[in-house]
């Protein structure tokens, strides 16, 4: 456990050094945030039908998506791990007296956390100062904020467990392109980052609620906005925990199987 914590701390401190990259990301995410707000404002203005999520709630969700984008995007990758697998230098990793799955998991968690810490606070602060109705605001209740923190934490654990499947698949494909595209495109859509889940057709919404992707972003952000109530939030937390257990178990079994067929160049 000490080795995993040391790696986590080292990677976190290393990631916090990339401030210029964070500033570039902040400006990009402000652009996308305003673009999405304008698009949905035009949509809500063109219809008189009552929507399952209000424009005001959706604006809160959009700012949270942009602030915690590093937490929720599946196409966010660690090139160092990919290089280790493709080049055969993973042999060095296998020499460590640690569990490879847990070692990489701690590294990926720290990487996402450092990226989010550098971006989320400046974005939320500036968004909070914007004029109504484009501004970010506090949650409707203290309970909503507590549930948001819980679901966001579980969401990060879940997204890293899913991303671990991408890295394990590279043992077979020897290229990250296909896995990143498949998981990135489908995961981004099914998590509600393209079309908000409440605005999806009923048939598609049923599919989204079965799969794990919406529990990484849609759930915590709609809890914060007040669009999801206490009862649904508590049930969803149980579903999040179940998905985490299932996907980590699958990932561990798959990695164990993949390591049996690994070929290290020169030996």
Structure description:
With 267 residues, the protein is mostly helical. The protein has one domain. It has 12 helices and no strands. It has helices at 2-15, 19-45, 55-67, 69-72, 79-87, 90-94, 100-128, 142-173, 177-190, 202-210, 218-225, 230-260. Helix 3 packs across helix 7 (100-128) and helix 3 packs across helix 11. The radius of gyration is 20 Å and the shape is globular. The two termini are 31 Å apart.
Which class do the helix and strand fractions yield?
A: mainly alpha
**Topology order in helix (H) and strand (E) letters:** HHHHHHHHHHHH
Tally of domains: 1
Could you tell me the mean pLDDT?
Answer: 86
Which range best describes the helical content: under 10%, 10-25%, 25-40%, 40-55%, 55-70% or over 70%?
over 70%
- Whole-number radius of gyration? 20 Å
Task: Describe the sheet with the most strands.
Answer: none
Query: How would the global form be characterised?
Result: globular
Unreliable residue runs: none
* Terminal CA distance: 31 Å
Treating each run of at least 4 consecutive H or I residues as one helix, how many helices? 12
What is the number of beta strands? 0
Q: What is the strand content?
A: under 5%
């Amino acid at each position: 456990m000490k080795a995993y914590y040391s790696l986590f701390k080292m990677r976190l401190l290393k990631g916090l050094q990339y401030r210029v990259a964070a500033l570039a990301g902040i400006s990009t995410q402000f652009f996308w945030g305003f673009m999405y707000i304008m698009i949905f404002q035009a949509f809500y203005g063109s219809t008189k039908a009552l929507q399952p999520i209000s424009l005001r709630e959706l604006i809160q969700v959009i700012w949270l998506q942009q602030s915690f984008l590093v937490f929720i995007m599946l196409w966010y990758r660690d090139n160092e791990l990919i290089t280790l697998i493709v080049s055969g230098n993973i042999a060095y990793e296998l020499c460590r007296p640690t569990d490879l799955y847990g070692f990489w998991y701690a590294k990926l968690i720290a990487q996402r956390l450092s990226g989010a810490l550098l971006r989320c606070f400046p974005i939320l602060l500036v968004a909070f100062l914007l004029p109504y109705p484009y501004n970010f605001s506090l949650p409707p209740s203290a309970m909503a904020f507590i549930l948001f923190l819980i679901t966001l934490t579980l969401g990060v654990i879940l997204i890293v467990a899913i991303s671990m499947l991408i890295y394990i698949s590279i043992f077979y494909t020897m290229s990250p392109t296909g896995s990143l595209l498949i998981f990135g495109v489908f995961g981004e859509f099914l998590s509600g980052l393209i079309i908000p889940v409440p605005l999806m057709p009923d048939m598609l919404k049923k599919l989204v609620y079965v799969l794990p992707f919406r529990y990484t972003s849609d759930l915590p952000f709609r809890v914060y906005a007040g669009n999801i109530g206490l009862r649904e939030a508590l049930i969803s937390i149980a579903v999040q925990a179940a998905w985490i257990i299932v996907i980590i178990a699958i990932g561990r079994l798959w990695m164990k199987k993949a390591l049996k067929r690994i070929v290290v160049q020169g030996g």
